[in-house]
Amino acid sequence: MTRRVAVTGLGVVAPGGIGTKGFWELITSGRTATRPITLFDPEGFRSRIAAECDFDPVHAGLTSAEIIRMDRYVQFAAVAADEAWRQAQVAVTDPWRVGVTMGSAVGGTTLLEQDYVATSQRGQRWLVDAGAASPFLHCALSPATLAAEVADRVGACGPVRTVSSGCTAGLDAVGHGARLIEEGRADVVLAGASESPISPITVACFDAIRATSARNDDPAHAARPFDRDRDGFVLGEGAAVLVLEELGHARRRGAEVLAQVEGFATRSNAHHMTGLTTEGVEMAEAARRALDHAAVAPAEIGYINAHGSGTRQNDRHETAAFHRLLGERAHQVPVSSIKSMIGHSLGAIGSVELAACALALVHGVVPPTANLDTPDPECDLDYVPHTARECQLDVVLSVGSGFGGFQSAVVLTRAGRP
Amino acid sequence: MSPAATGSAPVVTGLGVIAPSGLGVGEFWPAVRDGHLALAPIGRFEPNPYPVTVAGEVAGFEPAGWVEPRITVQTDRFTHFALAAADLALRDAVLHPAAVEPFEFGVMTASYSGGVEFGQREIEQLWRHGPEHVGPYQSIAWFYAACSGQISIGHGLRGPSGVVVADEAGGLDALAAAGSELRRGARAMLVGGAEAPFCPYALCCQLGLELLSTSSDPATAYQPFTERAGGFAPAEGGAMLVVEDAGAAHRRGASVKAVVAGHGATYTGRRRFDRSAQGLLRAATAALAEAGLTPDDVDAVFLDAMADPHADAAEAEALRLLLGERASRVPVTAPKAGYGRCYAAAAVLDVAAAVLALEHGLVPPTPGVRDCRFDLDLVTGVARPVDLRTVLVLSRGVYGGNSALVLRHPESPTSGGM
After folding, report:
1. Which backbone phi and psi does B90 adopt, to 5 degrees?
2. Do the beta carbons of residue B201 and residue A109 sit within 8 Å?
3. Scanning every residue of chain B, which has its alpha carbon at the shortest distance from the alpha carbon of A160?
4. Is-catalytic flag, A386?
5. Rounded mean pLDDT of B161-175?
6. Does B127 lie at the interface with A, CB-CB under 8 angstroms?
7. Which UniProt keywords are listed (chain A) (predicted)?
8. A232 inside 8 A of chain B by CB
9. Average pLDDT score, chain B
10. Is B165 in contact with A144 (Cβ distance < 8 A)?
C-alpha cells in the first residue's frame, strides 16, 4: 500500500509579511520587499541591500525565555511552525509517529558572529575569551537545534532531523520529511526551513565572489531574475514550515488537504562549488526523477517555481534545464521567481517557495516575477512578468540550485489528485 | 518481508577512516582492537585558557598527499578529512565512480560544526581589517555542505546528494538517508561525516554544552559507564563508507563487508537524558523491526557513551528494556573512549568499527575503562572473540536525537547471503 503525503498546514515568516496571508498578498501583488540593510550598518560592503523581515518576536507570540534562547532564524522557524500547526489542527495521539525535518544553510552564523566579536575583542584575539560568550552560543555551532526547537513546540518524538545542504536545504528538508512518511517512519512531519543570514560575515562572503546585487541605489528593483540587467541575487531571510501528513491519516480525521507532495529528487553537477554549466542537465534530471516518483509526465506540469536567483549564470542554466525537461512545450509553461520580491534566503527559500506553490494550487494563481522589464535574450520562457496570473493548476514543480553543485526538485499536486 | 530478509538492504563495500587512532582501516582497526588510547593534550592551539584541554586529534594528518593543493586552500580541515576518507573508501571498495551509471552514484554527509576553523580565520579578517579582506572561499568552506559538494566534484558523483545535521546522531541518519536513495534507484552512495572542531572559537562554543570532560589526564579524561564519568573528550576526524545497492554490488562481484539492515530515530528533548532511555529503546526496536529481527538476535552493541552520569544510566536502562535478562550477557562496547567523541562523525566511526568487528569476529574493548557501574557486559581490556551476526549501533545527540542502526554479517542466513 503506497503511502502518500498531504500538506495540511502552512506557516510563513517572510520579508514583507509575517504569516501566510501577508506573504501571499505580497507575492501576488508584484511588490518587492528588498531595501537597504537595517540589521547592521552595511557601510563599506559591496552589496548593502537585502530583503529583511519586519519581525517582532514578542508580537509574534514568543516568550521572553524563548527570545533569549533562540537565535533569530530559530525564532522565525518557531513562529512559522506555530502557524502551520494551528492550521493543521492535528491531535497527536502518538508522539513517536510525529517527526521534524528542518533545513538551513548557514544556521546560527548571526549569533556565532555576534559572540565572536565579543569574545575576540573585535577580532584582536585568536584565543577568544570564553567568559564573554553567551550561554546559548553552543546552540549556534550546529543548526541541529533548529529541528529540536520545532520538535519541542509540538511534542514530536519521532525522527527529528536538520538538513543543511546549502541553498537546496529548504526543498531537501521537505523531501526528507515526505520520505519519512512514505517509508512509514512517521505519520506527521513538520517540514520546513529557516535562515537569518543578514550579518556582516555572510554579506562579506557573497561580496567576495560577487554573487549578490550591488544595485544599492535602487534596492526595490535590485532582484531581477531573467532580466537582461540583473547583477546577482539579493540576500533575504525568513522561514516556512509545512505540516506533512500521511494522506489517509489526514482524510480519516477530516483535515483540509491543501496540496500533496508527490515527488522529490536531487542530483549534483559535480562541476564546481559555485559555478553552473550552461546546459542544466542535472537540474533537468532531478526534476525528471521527481516527476517519475510522482507518476506525472512533464507535459502535465502547470507551473514551475524557478530557483530564479538573478545571477547571470543561474538564470541561463535554469532556462536550459526547463527546455531540456519540457521540450517544445517549454514556452507554454508559466515559470516565475518569487526571489524577485522576497530575495534569496539561502537554505530557507526552498520551503518558502513550496509554501508559495501550495498556495498557488489552492488559489489557482501563479505569482509573478517582479522587475522583469527587459528579458535576457537567452532567457526565453514565459516568466509571468510583473503581474500574477490566474490559472487552474494540477501539478507544480519547484526547483532549487545550490553551492556544491546540488540540484533539487519537488513536485506538488492539487489536493485530491488520484 | 523486511529489506534485509529479501536481500535488498544496502550493503557496505568500502571503509575510509581518518581517526585520532589511525589513518585508514589498516591503522584504525589494530588501534581499536587493542584498545589503544589516542587522547592527548590539545596541540592545534594553546588550550590552557580553557577548562577543556584533552581531546582526540588526528595528529599525524597533513592534507598534502590526500588533497590537491588547489582544493586544500579552498577548504577547512573537516573537508580535508572527508576527502581523504572518501578516497580511502573508494579504494577499499575497489569501485571507480566512472563504472557506475551517471546520476546513480551520490554522496551524503553528516556534519555538526562545519568548517569552523576556516570560518574563524575569515571572520577575524572581517573584523580586524574590513569586508574586502574576506576571501572568496569563505562562502564554500564554512558551510555544512562543503564535504558533500567537494566529494561530489572530486569524484564526478552526479547522483543524489545531501547533508544531514541531525545532531550527533546525524551520522546514522545520513546512512538511513543514503539507504533511502538506494531503494529509489541509486546504485552507490559515499556516506559518512567529518568534524574538525579544534580552533579556539569552536572549543569556546562547545564549552556551553557542559558535557565535555575537564580532566587534564588523557588516561582518565573519558570514562563512560564508570563512577568517574565526567563528560566526554571531544575529537576530530571522519569516516566515509561506500554503501551500495545489494544487487549492484553482487553484479560487479564486490566484496560485501556488512548489510545495513535497519535504522530507527527518535527525539526526546534537549537536556533530557532521562527520557533518552525510551528514545533509544524505540529507535533500536524500529531498527530491528526494519531488519526483520528481534532483540534476541543482537550479538553486540556499540554504545553512544556520553560519559554523563544521567546519559550513561539512560543508555544502560535502554539496553535493559531492549534485551531483558540478556542485557548483562550481550557484549557492549564504546571504542570511542579511546579516541574521543567526534560529534556527527562519531557514529560513522562506530559503524566503521562495527563493520570491522563483524569482519574479524571480535568485539573491541572500551579503552581505559575497567569498572562498569552498570549490570552490562562492557568489554574492557582486550577484544573478545564472538561469532557476530548482528550488531546494534546506538547514537545520541546533545540536543535530544536518538538513533539506532542494525548491521549484519553478509553471510547471515536472513540477510540474503549475497
Report:
1. -65, -40
2. no
3. B267
4. no
5. 89
6. yes
7. Acyltransferase, Transferase
8. no
9. 95
10. yes
Q: What is the average per-residue pLDDT within B57-69? A: 95
State ipTM.
0.97
A90-A94-A98 Cα angle (round to 5): 65
> Would residue B1 count as lying in a domain?
no
Neighbours of A254 (CB within 10 A): 7
Q: Hey, is the C-beta of A179 within 8 angstroms of any chain B C-beta?
A: yes
CATH of the domain at A377: 3.40.47.10
Q: What parts of chain A have a pLDDT lower than 50?
A: none
The pLDDT, as a whole number, for residue B5 is 63
Q: What are phi and psi of A65, to 5 degrees?
A: -65, -40
The pLDDT of residue B418: 29
State whether A268 and B157 contact (CB < 8 Å). yes
Distance between CA A128 and CA A130 in Å, rounded?
Answer: 6
Please report, for the domain that includes residue B175, its CATH number. Answer: 3.40.47.10
* pLDDT greater than 50 at residue B417: no
CA angle B340/A105/B269 to nearest 5° reads: 55
What is the per-residue pLDDT for B4? 64
Strands (E), A317-405: 335-336, 365-366, 389-390, 395-402
Instruction: Name the DSSP letter for residue B366.
Output: -
Question: Considering only CB atoms, which chain A residues are within 8 Å of B206?
Answer: 138, 141
Crossing angle of helices A109-119/B116-129, nearest 10°? 60
| B349: Cα separation from own chain's centroid | 4
Note if A205 is an active site residue: no
In a domain, B43, yes or no: yes
In degrees and rounded to multiples of 5, residue B301 shows phi and psi of: -130, 130
Helices and strands in chain B, H and E counts: 12, 16
The answer to whether A293 is a known catalytic residue is no
The pTM of the whole model exceeds 0.95: yes
Q: How many domains does chain B have?
A: 2
Q: Is residue B184 located within the same domain as residue B298?
A: no
